[in-house]
Amino acid sequence: INAEYMGGFPEQTNSTHTHMKPPSWISLLFLLALSSARADVPAFGPLQGFIGVWSGVVGHVCSPGPETEDFYFEKQTYTPMFPTLNQVAGNTIAALRYEIQITRRDGSALHHETGQLHWLPDSKQYARLANIPRGITLMAGGTAFTNNSNWTYWFHAVADASDPNTWGVLNAPVVGASLPTTRFETSYYLYGDTLFYSDLTDNKLENGTIFRHVASNCLQRASLPRANTTQLC
After folding, report:
1. Does the CA dihedral 221-47-197-180 come out positive or negative?
2. C-alpha R_g of the chain
């Protein structure tokens, strides 16, 4: 569980009022609720195994051009969010907030991303909502597959800007005019304390050529509780 919940909620002030922090027992109840959800697999469906902190040192990105590849270190953090009731469909959406931080092996910054993972239990759909600082927001949708184990899942999702009937990609105008993202495909394989992913991004150059960027990494769980399985990275 993210340590930021341990201290309650910050004080908020304006010109006329000061709102004090809620009693500490509210924070404790919130922590207990999250702890219970962590032990209750149905609460977050197949997303359950993501919860926690992950680290990887074998990251690899490959793309065309003079700098064809790079290697990187990575940290991913997944934190439970409150369940969301879809008022129209009448179902509950389970969600995790995530943060991805990537640095090159020399310590320089390479990528920083925030977003959410969603699980829609009624339709058995999985979605990844990503906010990428260079001016791209996307929602990739798909599904999750399992081998009947609570700790083993394969996730696959796609976002395609060219098809209005599928999950989509939104490019900021300055990005859309020069190097828009046209398609994003993501795959995650979750096995106990090992998380492997591969992200494929297609960007369109001004001459119409597709610039394909592929990033992958194998991460190990760095936080408790663990699934008591062999780490494969």
Report:
1. negative
2. 19
Tokens at 57, concatenated: 């040192």
| Alpha-carbon gap, residue 93 to 84, rounded angstroms | 5
196 neighbors 215 (Cβ within 8 angstroms): no
User: What one-character DSSP code corresponds to residue 21?
Assistant: P
Backbone region of residue 228 per phi and psi (left: phi > 0; alpha: psi in -120 to 50; beta: other values): left
d(CA 185, CA 201): 7
Q: Which two tokens stand for residue 3?
A: 């340590």
- The pLDDT of residue 37: 39
Q: What is the pTM of this model?
A: 0.76
Q: Give the DSSP letter string of 106-126.
A: TS-EEEEEEEEEEEETTTTEE
Query: How far apart are the two ends of the chain, measured CA to CA in Å?
Result: 23
Q: In this structure, what token pair is assigned to residue 84? A: 């969301």
CB 54 within 8 A of CB 189: no
Chunked mean pLDDT (size 10), the chain, 233 residues: 32 38 41 41 81 91 67 93 72 91 89 94 90 92 79 88 86 82 94 93 90 92 71 75
- The beta-carbon contacts of 230-233 under 8 Å, at least 24 apart in sequence, are 230/192, 230/193, 230/194, 231/192, 231/193, 231/194, 232/191, 232/194, 232/196, 233/56, 233/58, 233/194, 233/196
